[in-house]
C-alpha cells in the first residue's frame, strides 16, 4: 500500500497501522496540490488497483464574508488536489491496463446549503461532478469511479470546533434514525466496499454513510 499525507505524524501512524495488520506501507510526504509530487508518488506504484483521494480541509464563513483567499485555499485542496490524484490514477490504470477503482471523498454538504459552507460545499460539489464525469469517460476501460459523501463524522478535523462541536454532534445524533454520529470506521467501510469486487457493477455513484440524515439545517 502507498500512503500519502502532508502530516508527517499522521503518515507515520497510518503506515504503522498497515504494517501491524501484516501489510507493506510505502509513504509519500506530500501536499496534494503539488501535481508533480503526486505524479512521482503514483509513478512509484508497481501496480495501481485502487486509489482513494481523501485529503481535505474545512473552512466556514458566511457568503458575504468569504474572501478570495478562503475560496482559493479550499478549492485547491478539496477539488484540485482530488482532480490531480484522479488524473494520475486514471492514467496509471490505463497504462497498466488495470480495471481498477477510483474513490473520491465528497460530503453530505453537497445535499444542502448549510450556513457557512459555501467554500467547502462548492468544492465537494465539484468533486461529485468530477466523479460522475470521469466515471462516464473511462468506464469503457473497466475503471470504476465513485464518491463517498459522509454525514457528520467524529474526526480530528471536526474535533477542532470545541463546545460548538459537542452541540452539533448532539444535534446530528438526534436527527439520525441510528441515534449517533459517524466514526472514521464508518467511512472506511464505505471506501472498502467501493474498493472491493463487491462493487464491481457500481460506478458514477455517491455512497452516503450519514446515519440516515444529510446535514439538515
Briefly say what this structure is:
The protein is of the alpha/beta class and 217 residues long. Helix content is 45%, strand content 11%. The protein has one domain: 3-Layer(aba) Sandwich (Rossmann fold), CATH 3.40.50.
How does this model look, in words?
It is a single chain. By secondary structure, the chain is of the alpha/beta class. It has one domain: 3-Layer(aba) Sandwich (Rossmann fold). The protein has 6 helices and 6 strands, in the order βαβαβαβαβααβ. It has a 4-stranded parallel β-sheet with strand order 3-4-5-6, sandwiched between helices. A two-stranded parallel sheet has the order 1-2. The longest helix is centred in the middle third of the chain and has 29 residues, at 68-96. The radius of gyration is 17 Å and the shape is globular. It starts with a strand and ends in a 10-residue tail after the last strand. The mean pLDDT is 93.
Beta-strand level of the residues, as a percent range?
5-15%
Query: What is the count of DSSP helices, taking H or I runs of 4+ residues?
Result: 6
DSSP E strands, number: 6
- The CATH first-level class comes to Alpha Beta
Give the proportion of residues in helices. 40-55%
The CATH topology comes to Rossmann fold
